[in-house]
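task queued by scheduler; priority normal; single chain, no ligands, no partner chains; default sampling; output format set to structure tokens
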Amino acid sequence: MKFLAIERSVDGASTETMRGLHEAEAQRVWELYLAGILREIYFTDQHDAVLIMECGSEREAREAIDTLPLVRERQIRFDLMALKPYTGLKRLFRAGIVAKSPERQDNPA
């Protein structure tokens, strides 16, 4: 399953504590990437991390996030959301609202 994790601030987080954990955080992120758990990582304009993860369950995703040093030390937290395939287009095709593309009409094969 695919999951979206968005970094959130934690009250009482310390810039000094966070700086001391950056190297360990980067190491753990790299390990999760190599394990195929962390698939993509981004920053927002506010410099919050956004992670795309691949895990067997929400529990596995949460457990992986909880191994991050900044999370373990309660300097940041993540909102976690399961991502599911978008099915909205299927309704349009079923209702006949969407016309076939010109390529498909010209080439029925």
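post-processing summary
- Strands lie at 2-9, 38-43, 49-54, 76-83.
- The CA atoms of residues 11 and 75 lie 8 Å apart.
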